[in-house]
Amino acid sequence: MNIKKAMILTGATAAGLVGASTAASADQITIKSGDTLAGIAQEHGTTTENLAAINAITDPNLIFAGETIETEGEVAPVQQAPVQAAAPVAQPAAQVAAPAAPVQATATPAPASAPAGSGSTYDEFIANGGTAAMWHTIVRPESGGNPNAVSPNGYRGLGQTKEGWGTGSVAQQTRGMVNYATSRYGSVENAISFRQSNGWW
Question: Residues of the chain whose pLDDT is less than 50?
Fold first, then answer.
């Protein structure tokens, strides 16, 4: 009789622990490709700033697909992220290269750096043969629209590549991306479809 009671108690305790672990993780989500911190904040009734503070995210415009973040809780202590210096690139004298930030699958539209007096990075991208669909489906998730972005794995630029076109001006990177899309996938549209299906290109 004591064995049956012990088994029932053990089963009930295990069920309670499973329920507790499920409840404890209810305020955590795994970032999917294409998610934005702003979208996650809106979905969970909070602000982008609050999510960034809770999860010690230094740049709310750059998040990694596959990472788990808290949607509720205490503010985490801020940790200094390692900074990687961008490789020297011959560019117009008016532009000052900013240190590159780690690249993450991202999100909300943010001003991206562009050569002085040239308009936005998006405008330059479009003017040099890029398309709006390519910008929103490939560039934004890959680099957040930052032509100086460098991932922890060494992928660079708007399209996140280790090819030579991953550095240089927005015009050079855009032409490189379009050439890569057409040579590897047959067309920009096929590259976009591949990125949508696979979460990488």
Answer: 1, 3-24, 76, 78, 95-96, 98, 101, 103, 105-117
Write the burial class of residue 62 (CB in 10 Å: 0-12 exposed, 13-18 middle, 19+ buried): buried
Q: What angle do CA 189, 192, 194 make, to 5 degrees?
A: 110
How far apart (Å, rounded) are the C-alpha atoms in residues 180 and 163? 10
Three-state DSSP class for 30?
Answer: strand
Taking residue 67's Cβ as centre, other Cβ atoms within 10 Å add up to 13
* Three-class secondary structure of residue 60 per DSSP: coil
Q: In 96-110, which positions are buried (b, 16+ CB within 10 angstroms) versus exposed (e)?
A: eeeebbbbbbbbeee
Residues sharing a CB contact under 8 Å with residue 55, sequence separation 6 or more, in sequence order: 69, 70, 76
Map tokens 């309670």 to a residue.
16
- The phi and psi torsions of 105 (rounded to 5 degrees) equal -60, 135
Phi and psi dihedrals of 114, rounded to 5? Answer: -150, 155
- Cα separation, 124 vs 132, in Å, equals 12
- Six-digit token string for 79: 């940790």
pTM over 0.90: no
CA distances in angstroms from 130 to 16, 139, 166, 189, listed in the order given: 54, 10, 15, 11
User: Alpha-carbon distance 76 to 63, whole Å?
Assistant: 16
